[in-house]
Write a structure and sequence with these properties.
Length: 110
């Protein structure tokens, strides 16, 4: 077990003492579901993972390597969901998409 894993285990143990094992498991399930929902509903936020070297350099310079049509389509869908549009470089500008995913996860768990 490396240092990061030890620290995560320590924090989880502290949280279990404070909230209880059952509450921590529910919280972890909700976070996992929210991650899954976020990846499903907002795949454009993960596009940068497949960038070529030149695309990554463009993003660093503030240039969006995605096509204009795709960006317009994505931003229209995001606005329908109440999420801010992507920035000039094609990356999210805030965490509003995560808030939508977390809310949906909580709705599904109830």
């Amino acid at each position: 077990m490396n240092r990061v894993e030890k620290e995560l285990a320590r924090k989880r143990a502290e949280l279990c003492e404070e909230l209880g094992e059952e509450q921590v498991q529910k919280m972890e399930l909700a976070e996992s579901l929210a991650r899954s929902i976020h990846q499903e509903v907002f795949p454009e936020e993960y596009d940068h993972m497949m960038d070529s070297v030149s695309d990554a350099n463009d993003r660093r310079r503030g240039i969006n390597p995605m096509s204009v049509d795709y960006t317009a389509e994505v931003n229209a869908r995001r606005s329908e969901l109440g999420v801010t549009p992507l920035g000039e470089n094609g990356m999210p500008t805030d965490s509003s998409s995560w808030e939508v995913a977390k809310a949906e996860a909580m709705r599904r768990l109830k």
